[in-house]
Amino acid sequence: MLLFYTLFLHLQHLNSYHLIQAIKLQAFYCFLLLTILIFGCGKNEKKEITTAFYHWKSELSLGKREFNYLEECKSSLLYIRCFDVKWDNENKKPIPNAKLLLDTLDTLKTDVIPVVFIENQVFVNIKTDSINSLAKNCYTLINGIFSNRKFDFQELQFDCDWTEKTKDRYFQFLLEIIRLSENKNLISATIRLHQVKYFDITGIPPVDKGMLMFYNMGKLTDYNCKNSIYNENDAGKYVSYVKQYPLRLDVALPLFSWGICFKSGSVFKIINQLTIKEIKLNPNFKLINDNIYIAEQSNLFRGVYFDKGDRVRVEEISPEVCKKAALQLSENLNSASFTVAFYHLDSTIISIFPPNEIKNIVSTFN
Length: 366
Known about the structure:
By secondary structure, the protein is of the alpha/beta class. The chain folds into three domains: 2-43; 49-255 and 318-363, TIM Barrel (Alpha-Beta Barrel); 257-316, no CATH class. It is built from 13 helices and 18 strands. It has helices at 2-11, 16-44, 64-72, 120-125, 131-145, 167-181, 193-197, 199-202, 232-236, 276-280, 319-330, 347-352, 355-363; strands at 48-55, 59-60, 75-88, 93-97, 101-102, 111-118, 155-159, 186-191, 209-213, 249-254, 258-263, 266-272, 285-289, 292-295, 299-301, 304-306, 311-315, 337-343. An eight-stranded parallel barrel has the order 1-3-6-7-8-9-10-18, surrounded by four helices. A five-stranded antiparallel beta sheet has the order 12-11-17-14-13. A hairpin with a 2-residue loop joins strand 11 (258-263) and strand 12. The longest helix is centred in the N-terminal third of the chain and has 29 residues, at 16-44.
């Protein structure tokens, strides 16, 4: 206000030409101030963020520890894998696999979103006139799993790493799911980073929103890859494209670890939830380079038989690394209202990522 008052006093002593110039200057200052106010408020505007977890086991059996963890993390959503759909080569048809067994669903205090994982191979092989039947079977099976439970879900999610060659069949499947749901449920689809960057080639799924999977971005089978779950350099090749993606996006961040087992330079097994701490305790393995361990003698470890000389690359995500991923992504999301989902909920994760770490990571997006 002092600026405008000073300008007003100055205007009284100017001739017409200088008066016009001064008015123009005053208008510019008004515009500048308004711009600062608008963008300044926008920058400080608090985003609406929902915290969620994925549950990716064949049996939903959560105990008090898990319930308390979800509550302390302020998590109000749980994405639950219901079943997988795989291609049966022998019978030439898609089949459900690893159907979910429910135990503690009724005691959950969070909302539930059923998730169905579909192998891309299904859409490589399925005939076009069988796609609608597949959608109907999936929709019926989802409802059958929850039929005896007093539970109403607002969203269904489908997880498929489709390609340019399978997009039309997968998108037809999604459209049929939408028709079957009769607008009772939001329909979402998982989105990989390559599908974001090359959406003009891979297409945009006809759903209400996407779940950006901000992990598994490196080449897992490459022996020289240090961490295929997340690394900043690989993420940097894709992250700038996220804001331009035409579909509203939620985001999934990794909490998991695994061991990639190599024999003669080729992958022969993946051990889920293997940590460096665990493999260090095994005297049969020796650290040879960064996070790579070699079997010094033949042994059985975690149900996997290792010959002498086999190698394991242990890939972990720590709270610090997960927060780095969140920071890298936070400025590039295309919505002010979104879900941050963590993959995935289990006892190991609870030990490594206490609730304060989860809340700290989520706060990064504000």
